Amino acid sequence: MKGIIIMKKILSLLGTITLIGTSTTSLVACNKTQEYTPEELKELKEKNKIDTTNQEIKDNLEWIAAQEKPFNSQGDYKYYIIVWKGAKNDNWTIKKYKNIGYTENNTINGIISYTKIDKSYSGAFLYRNEFDLAANKTREHATWIEDDGTFFKSVYCWNGEEQKLPNLVIDDNGNVKVKGE
């Protein structure tokens, strides 16, 4: 009888070790945010400027990398232009969003909730949580920080005056351009 109890304890211990090892392996394999060096980031910002003859737009529309984490609880009251899709088979769509941050109105029992920003062709939603963007459909979900370009094509920040916010559109490939150019 004692032998059976000892054997059960050993098997239980081995099962626990296996579970811990599996969880650790899964954690190590998680997607990480693409981190650019300052030089790479500067080069990407230049490369991702939209093609326009309007100098004010060239000077004030800035491509943003997820690692810059522009979304925080305070908000910067700037407009962000988000090119996204809610499902792999959706077309790219563009959405302007004013980053007003989070207030008590965005909490439920002290827990920060998501704010819906947009809805895609397939019925998926674009959400803004406390520090990130998320595209969410029943079986497909991605955050901007972890996305590989499947759901988020680009994010731009308008650093100019609100009254001069440009009218932007996207082409069939999801590239941002000024309407009429």
Word description of this protein:
The chain is of the alpha+beta class and 181 residues long. It has a domain at 54-178. It has helices spanning 2-28, 38-47, 55-60, and strands at residues 61-63, 79-84, 93-98, 107-108, 111-112, 115-119, 125-128, 133-136, 141-143, 152-158, 168-170, 176-178. The strands form four sheets. A four-stranded antiparallel sheet has the order 1-10-2-3. β2 (79-84) and β3 (93-98) form a beta hairpin. It is globular. The chain starts with a helix and ends with a strand.
List the helices and strands and how they pair.
Layout: H1 2-28, H2 38-47, H3 55-60, E1 61-63, E2 79-84, E3 93-98, E4 107-108, E5 111-112, E6 115-119, E7 125-128, E8 133-136, E9 141-143, E10 152-158, E11 168-170, E12 176-178
Antiparallel strand pairs: 1-10, 2-3, 2-10, 4-5, 6-7, 7-8, 8-9, 11-12
Signal peptide: 1-28
Organism: Spiroplasma phoeniceum P40
Protein name: Lipoprotein
